Amino acid sequence: MKLPDIAFLHELADAADQQTLPRFRSSENLAISTKPKEGFRFDPVTLADREAEKAMRDLIAQRYPTHAVMGEEFGLKAGDERAPCWVLDPIDGTRPFLCGLPVWGTLIGLLHHDRAVMGMMSQPFTGERFYADGSQSWVEGPYGKVRLQTRRDVPLDQAILHTTSPESLGQTSLKFDALDKAVLMTRYGGECYAMAMLAAGKIDVCVEFALQPYDIVALIPLIELAGGVVTTPDGGRPEQGGQVIASGCPRLHSQILSILN
């Protein structure tokens, strides 16, 4: 399959940005509601989430009408049997979005034969786009365009660990406490921005416990094409979400899996 031009992912991000950025840190009524999510008592969805996903779906329908689309807010639209599938999260990190913290982003991923092949994370408030074009990973923003490269061969005791929220720690059999004690430091609350920082070589390990496909598909190629590794705890492919571990290099990843398991 010939991959779409990366310019189309930028178009999708532009459409989403037009819906999310004006509502960020705004006094506008965002019509906040909550969805059931295992392990969380509050999982918000807002008008910004819904309108951004609608805008992206409309563009995909116009340009690629035979493609499937999976989105957080409006579910799965089936496509032709052999067609790729777009995987959308209009605001990954709705809770920090509501708090005025710029660690949320719009996630745009593309699956082909159930494998993540392209992806983008757009953070319009900081003016950054992190993306994988099918062969390399890049960031474009206030400092220009830079190729992304994970930090490699970091000793475990010097590694920086991230997980979004401690709420899920009590519901996993993974030995996160042991990993926490083995690394240099652990940080929380970075959402998709932390995964982008792993691809950029600023964070070494991200562990997440309850992802959906739309939370991770866009980020898989971003990290892999920057030199990192993304798997489930048993070393399997992570496109279906669940428990997901991302590391900056294969050697470190092997150590992380050994500790967590």
Features:
alpha+beta; Fructose-1,6-Bisphosphatase, Chain A, domain 1; D-Maltodextrin-Binding Protein, domain 2; 2 domains; eight-stranded mixed beta sheet; five-stranded mixed beta sheet; 8 helices
Describe this structure as you would to a colleague.
The structure is a single chain. The chain has 261 residues and is α+β, with helices and mostly antiparallel strands. It has two domains: 6-147, Fructose-1,6-Bisphosphatase, Chain A, domain 1 (2-Layer Sandwich); 156-260, D-Maltodextrin-Binding Protein, domain 2 (3-Layer(aba) Sandwich), CATH 3.40.190. The chain is 29% helix and 28% strand. The protein is built from eight helices and 15 strands. It has helices spanning 6-20, 47-63, 94-99, 176-182, 191-199, 213-216, 219-224, 250-260; strands at 33-34, 44-45, 68-71, 75-77, 85-92, 105-112, 115-123, 128-132, 137-141, 144-147, 160-163, 185-188, 205-211, 229-231, 242-247. An eight-stranded mixed beta sheet has the order 4-3-5-6-7-8-9-10, sandwiched between helices. The protein has a five-stranded mixed beta sheet with strand order 12-11-13-15-14, sandwiched between helices. Strand 8 and strand 9 (137-141) form a beta hairpin. The radius of gyration is 17 Å and the shape is globular. The model has no long low-confidence stretch (mean pLDDT 93).
